[in-house]
Amino acid sequence: MKFLSSHQSGFISFFNEIGDMGNFTGRYFRELFSKPFEFREFLNQCYQMGNKSLLLVGVTGFILGLVFTLQSRPTLMEFGAVSWMPSMISISIVREIGPVIIALICAGRIGSSIGAELGSMKVTEQIDAMEVSGTNPFKYLVVTRILAATCMLPLLVIIGDFVALVGSAIIENAKGDVSFTLYFNQVFEALEFTDLIPATLKTFFFGFAIGLVGCFKGYNSNKGTAGVGKASNSAVVFTSMLLFVLDFIAVFITDIFYS
Amino acid sequence: MKNQPVIEIKNLYKSFGQTRVLNDFNLTLFKGENLVLMGKSGSGKSVLIKCLVGLMDFDKGSIKVLGKDISNIKQSELDELRTDIGFLFQGSALYDSMTVRENLEFPLRRHQNDSESKTKARVEEALENVGLPQTIDLMPAELSGGMQRRIALARALILKPKIIIYDEPTTGLDPITAKEIILLMMNIQKKYATSSLIITHDVDCARVISNRMILLLDGKDYIQGTFNELALSEDPKIKAFFK
Amino acid sequence: MKSNSGNNLKLGLLIMVGLIIFTLGVYFIGKKQNLFGDSITISSVFKNVNGLQPGNNVRYSGVNVGTVKEIKFLNDTAICVNMLISQESGNLIKYSSVATINSDGLVGSMVLNILPTDKFPSRRLKEGDTLYSLSQVATTDMLNTLNKTNENAALLTEDLIKITNSINAGEGVLGKLLKDETLAKNIQESAANLNFTTRSAKSGLTKLNDLLNSVDYENSIVGLLLSDSTAQENLKTTIQDLQASSSQINKLSANLEEFSNSLNSEKGALNLVVKDTTFVNHLDQSIRNIEEATHRFNENMEALKHNILFRGYFRKLERKKARQENGNK
Description:
Low-confidence stretches of chain B: none
Order of helices and strands of chain C: HEEEEHEEEHHHHHHH
Structural class of chain B: alpha/beta
Largest sheet of chain B: 6 strands, mixed
Largest sheet of chain C: 7 strands, mixed, barrel
Number of helices of chain C: 9
Strand order of the largest sheet of chain B: 6-7-8-3-9-10
Strand content of chain B: 25-35%
Oligomer: heterotrimer
């Protein structure tokens, strides 16, 4: 009975949280389209999320390209299909691996930092201080962060994809004597708009999810420093899970429309 | 001078679940007055001031700030009204992602359309007032607790508010620093002729700064009077505060 | 504020880099699909498009010139393939060119190839033209055929191995022909015999002719006999038959000679008689028959000399001969 009731309360709190998040999302859209817009803070957040994550995304993307190519080469060689390398790598990176891996990296980097920052602001009354000073903290802190994440993630993914392809091209160049020109010719030969556009569109949703969950967890964190840690941790965990769900939905929709 | 009220709280009720925190509470703050609100921890002082600035909704009663009923105004009006209220938080609540300069600029940029040079001048002036001009480019984490409190005071004052609310201004500070803060508060009061509502349980602070005192007990304004009147009271409940 | 504007500059750079990469990506993909620049739409009608899809490449003489725009059914057997090709290549391609659908490598996607034909002089392509199409076997069909061919080739080689083995072992006509020296000798001998027989048959017949010419039809028995029309007829037929058989033998010997020649030259229609042992037997039999026939013919001729009808003639001949000899003396 106790077991059941603990599960029941778990369910209830889960659905409560979903409901709260729904309200939070609704408030985001209301505040997004009402004046004033905190443009300076938005730019600042874009810089914090974009430029400060660039190195991480670049290194991850580069290694991703290298490793992916190195790992796939032997298998393709077995089939005598090494010349398909650029097509295979580019399609898998642009369609799936690039967006998902980079979004996960950003969930760790951006989501956790948003969660921790807003959590500690909440705990140390900074959010109250902001409200008291006549600034809408939701607009200033939440709207700008979610919007910045939504806008910056596609850029990071595009750059990360490109760097990954460069990494892959370097391996192909070194191991398979494929020139960069030939490599990228084959890449663009293989890629279609149906690969690039849906993959880019879904990264906006990924960015939105990262910003939304990070802000939600941070903005609603409990009192105390433990609350900050919890907010940042659960932001990453929940965002990562949400990213896969969103990816599944995106792939499903793409599949319906393009096949 | 004392006949013009800036804050009027009448019959305020607020409860959390079954716990009634404020129970028919009344308070009036007059212009240019330093009113000290004393009470035990958890007696509802912080709840009261949060209700006062609209951070928290209350159940019943009315709060009028500068003649405006805060439970009955638009968000934009409330934001406008808030620029006339300075708030010094218990934990300073400086934005720790910003430098001291940015902390002070923050309210200025949102509420005044000053030129860059004028903004800069006002920030420097505010820092001069609290005696910390050298900290302008430091981050809050690099400052001591007392310095943080002073920077927070400078930030609360930068829009030249008509009312300043101090939430435990000396809590967590050593007696010397606490005294410095109290002196600073008095200087500012003289300089800008603000009305102050000070929430504290520091008797020394209350004695130095108060024109009038209110004791918050059981959610009610248990007694009002000058420091001396209260300190000399024979009521055991009041006596407990002044031991 | 300085740091802030510096940050904005860096942010601006980041956004520019991202957008440039994205735009280049879109441009190169779009360029491949002829979205940018002038292009013309042409079409071709096929019975089977073999899995061609919109977006597949269109090639002219192996160079990518455009992409397949859409594929639609015209009716239950005709499928119209619309393709976008660049204006530039449209100016090169002739209207008489032929469109085919092939696979790009064994496992590759489908490609629409436009092949130039030199047969007719014609104008350049223009918007809305429909090219002739040529249906080609799909890879699967090709593979199926190839498979069948392979199986057949395997069977053939197996049989060939058997044949060569048996030839080597000296079985069958060919084996005997190649290996058996006695047979070859026999054939040679038979041919020589035939030659001899025909020659003697010829001389025999000439003599018979002379003899008949010199027969005294009215006085001699022979004449009487010969003037008897029935006997005469009989004799005539015999002689005609003999003549015919001699010419046939002649022919046969010529054929045999030819045959042995072709055997010697290792050419000709030998494969026709591969493994036919009955033929060998027949040939053996025939040769034996011919030998017997010639033998019997010789016997007949000898018998004719001793025949009561011809004995006088032969004596007369002998006498004549003796007289001539005496006269000469």
